Amino acid sequence: VICNCENTGYIGQNCHFAKYRKTCEELALLGYSRNDVYLIDIDGNGKFPPAHVKCEFREIEADSSITVVEHNLPSQVDVRSSSGQDFSFRIKYREFTAEMLQELISHSLYCRQYIKYDCNMAPLELHSATWFISSSNDAVDFLGNVSRGYCPCGVNATCVNPTQSCNCDANENKWHSDEGTLVDPRSLGIMEMFFLQQKDLTEEAQGRITLGPLECVETNTQRYVVTFTTSQSYIEVPGWRKGDIAFSFRTTGTSAILLFQPPIRPNYPSFMVALTSEHELTFNFTLNTGTTRKLVINSKRKLNGGEWHKIW
């Protein structure tokens, strides 16, 4: 059987391995450091196709890399005026569907999305006249990490009018703004926006909306490493029989055992992954039939230069 993997997003003899990494953090492990747009596959070998994101890489000692999903809503979009009609907008995030956004959000350490409403005599009136729909199909009628119907200033009574929930609800003839960062997973990935036009808006009335991209941060895997202090050290993987194994390593040694599963009982499979030269990895397998196999992988990149390499 010959599998044709062309244009599938998968590679390997059986088209089993995802061609693209799941997040920007995984790209960082492979040595990527240039902030740019990349193709990633958010669920690996799952059902979703690859999609473009912007990667913002960080130093190893700093925060994790950020996976940024941009959308098609410009900044400072006019949504309210005295002559305007009710306004609604459906937002598209590159190739991402709502379900794909939820997948990214669910396996991230945390995600966030900035939102801002600028106003001049155009009240915000969250819930009754302004609301949004998230990628999880939840109604969002708040700005930031606050209760429903509130802006951040309304939580601690610092709004222009302390009796109101938002600055813009003061309805003054001067420019004000309300802004916040959404962090609740149920509020993230804003897909739709709705703005009803209030009655009796004056000619000076203007309301504008700005929505930032969805930004997600993975666990910084480079902080959670196992360090070998001797050349005889290795990781033992007891009891593994099926599935996929992926790991990253970096070394300056010329040879090392990276992973080893001993046969825990007769006729039980075992394997070993070893660095056998600066450009060579060797995989030794013993099947449950007792048959031994060996696979040698040659890399164009130097494997013991102290940089991270990923095996999957």
Number of separate helices: 3
pLDDT < 50 stretches: none
Mind telling me the CATH class of the largest domain?
Mainly Beta
Principal-axes geometry comes out as: elongated
Report on the structure:
- The chain has 312 residues and is mostly beta strands.
- The chain folds into two domains: 74-217, Sandwich (Jelly Rolls); 225-312, Sandwich (Jelly Rolls).
- The protein has helices at 24-29, 98-106, 152-155, and strands at 10-11, 17-18, 36-40, 51-56, 66-69, 77-81, 87-90, 110-120, 130-133, 139-140, 176-182, 192-195, 206-211, 214-217, 235-236, 247-249, 256-261, 270-277, 280-286, 292-298, 309-311.
- The strands form five sheets. Strands 3, 4, 5, 6, 8, 11, 13 and 14 form an eight-stranded antiparallel β-sheet that branches. Strands 15-17-18-19-20 form a five-stranded mixed β-sheet, with no helix packed on it. The chain has a four-stranded antiparallel β-sheet with strand order 7-12-9-10, with no helix packed on it.
- It is built from three helices and 21 strands.
- Helix content is 6%, strand content 33%.
- The mean pLDDT is 87.
- InterPro entries: ConA-like_dom_sf, Laminin_G.
- This is Laminin G domain-containing protein.
